[in-house]
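Example for tutorial group B:
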């Protein structure tokens, strides 16, 4: 088994509250047949997802964190810069053979990194964290979508917000792998295949879980993207569009930044000791209370790749406070560090993918699931976003 070198943690697991078995009633867990367990080895839990509880505890201890919520003006300028970069590179490579070293190297080193950045810009914008106006946020998301080559920003938002509202809920959270995926890809080769083509799994899986009603935003996203692709091909040729689409594929394949897809919610540590991030016991009283969860469902990463990815590595912090923009997540962590310093975290996204593929105890089955709770996206309630829960004041950028 590969060493658990990518994770540090101090949380003791209350395994009696969570079972790797079918979602039977708690009193029936011990009678679950071995045959059924072969076809469903997810970690089924009957507890509430941990982020709402921790958010309330943090607000009680540090009410000033609510002031961190609201749009980040810098986001729109970064989106403009990266869209311009990718469009320029696509045009410059219009006469370069696709299978040439300059084309492939540029697509992997620059294009994939840039499009991963745009994926996560759209993620940030889906929480209305670029403008106060929801309409301007939708427009910016469609604009950020252009170098990705395939329209998806309009569909991503409702699926992603449902992921927040329904973390781990079977049939609602489309970030969860299906049982068929986990069963078929339950091998080193299968997990390597998943890592290589994970962008396709994330793109296609939601449509098999539940379908979204089409809206004018979807129509605008598709129409504007097709127009952009047509103009690019007409004036710069098919290789220019090929560069953008290849960049998108590589961004969700075997790329260092793509490790965040697996790192965020897959369970990498099923039993934990009293070692903290430095390998020794640490933490305050409140920190020990904050880490009293059955099994870690979300992992953070605090390494240098956050600079390229809108701090998406601070994923516990993001799920606790979805209305706090990327620039203020480190501030949130520092304000409430006693709640975060003892939670399990990854040290490397590259090692995450390596361990995911080679460790026989880590795979697509290693996700926490729940049968009940959550709901499909509708209108966010401000208290769900973690700002001014008691004061009832309006959060900028939510309405």
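The residue assignment follows.
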């Amino acid at each position: 088994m590969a060493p658990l070198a990518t994770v540090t943690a101090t949380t003791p697991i209350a395994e009696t509250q969570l079972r790797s078995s079918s979602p039977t009633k708690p009193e029936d867990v011990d009678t679950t047949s071995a045959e059924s367990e072969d076809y469903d080895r997810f970690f089924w839990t009957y507890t509430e997802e941990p982020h709402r509880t921790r958010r309330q505890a943090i607000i009680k201890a540090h009410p000033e964190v609510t002031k961190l919520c609201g749009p980040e003006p810098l986001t729109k300028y970064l989106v403009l810069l990266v869209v311009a970069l990718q469009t320029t590179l696509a045009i410059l490579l219009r006469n370069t053979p696709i299978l040439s070293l300059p084309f492939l190297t540029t697509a992997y080193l620059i294009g994939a990194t840039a499009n991963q950045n745009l994926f996560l810009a759209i993620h940030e914008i889906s929480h209305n964290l670029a403008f106060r106006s929801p309409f301007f946020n939708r427009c910016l998301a469609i604009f950020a979508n252009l170098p990705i080559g395939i329209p998806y920003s309009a569909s991503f938002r409702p699926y992603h917000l449902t992921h927040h509202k329904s973390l781990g809920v079977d049939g609602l959270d489309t970030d969860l792998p299906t049982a068929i995926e986990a069963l078929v890809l339950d091998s080193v080769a299968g997990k390597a295949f998943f890592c290589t083509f994970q962008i396709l799994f994330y793109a296609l899986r939601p449509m098999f879980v539940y379908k979204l009603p089409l809206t004018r935003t979807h129509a605008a996203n598709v129409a504007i993207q097709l127009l952009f692709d047509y103009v690019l091909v007409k004036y710069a040729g098919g290789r220019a569009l090929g560069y953008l689409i290849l960049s998108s594929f590589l961004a969700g394949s075997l790329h260092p930044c793509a490790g965040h897809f697996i790192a965020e919610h897959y369970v990498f540590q099923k039993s934990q000791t009293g070692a903290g991030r430095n390998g020794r016991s640490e933490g305050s009283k409140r920190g020990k209370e904050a880490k009293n969860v059955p099994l870690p469902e979300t992992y953070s990463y605090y390494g240098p790749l956050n600079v390229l990815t809108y701090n998406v590595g601070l994923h516990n912090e993001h799920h606790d406070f979805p209305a706090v923009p990327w620039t203020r997540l480190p501030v949130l962590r520092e304000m409430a560090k006693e709640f975060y310093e003892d939670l399990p975290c990854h040290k490397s996204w590259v090692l995450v993918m390596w361990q995911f593929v080679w460790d026989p105890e880590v795979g697509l089955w290693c996700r926490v699931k729940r049968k009940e709770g959550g709901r499909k996206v509708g209108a966010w309630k401000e208290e769900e976003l973690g700002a001014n829960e008691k004061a009832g004041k309006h959060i900028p950028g939510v309405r």
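DSSP finds 17 helices and six strands in the chain. Compare this with the pattern of hydrophobic and polar residues in the output above.
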